[in-house]
Design brief:
Length: 102
């Protein structure tokens, strides 16, 4: 008999459950307008992040994620939107792939 957790978890890299920790994201839309939003980070893995947002972000949009933005020792990660999927709640699950230098 196989362990169901092994069947469900197919990722080969480390993943951290962020328990909906709030992060700030910054992006520039197609018209050149900069946006800042505080949203929930659901998961953090070596290759990317999964975010919960009240609006969709276009695929390939460059996004800066700021952890603990109010703190002088905040951390920034840079990535691009891999996908944006509307959930039953009406919110969007945003998957970011981190830039290779991150």
């Amino acid at each position: 008999m196989t362990d169901s957790s092994e069947e469900q978890e197919r990722r080969k890299s480390f993943r951290l459950d962020m328990e909906k920790e709030l992060v700030d994201i910054v992006w520039i839309d197609k018209s050149g307008q900069e946006h800042n939003k505080k949203i929930a980070c659901l998961d953090f893995a070596r290759g990317g992040l999964r975010l919960d947002c009240d609006q969709s972000l276009a695929t390939n949009t460059a996004v800066t994620v700021v952890f603990k933005s109010a703190n002088a020792s905040n951390q920034k990660l840079y990535g691009k939107v891999l996908r944006s999927v509307k959930q039953e709640s009406g919110w969007f699950e945003i998957a970011l792939v981190l830039d290779k230098g991150a």
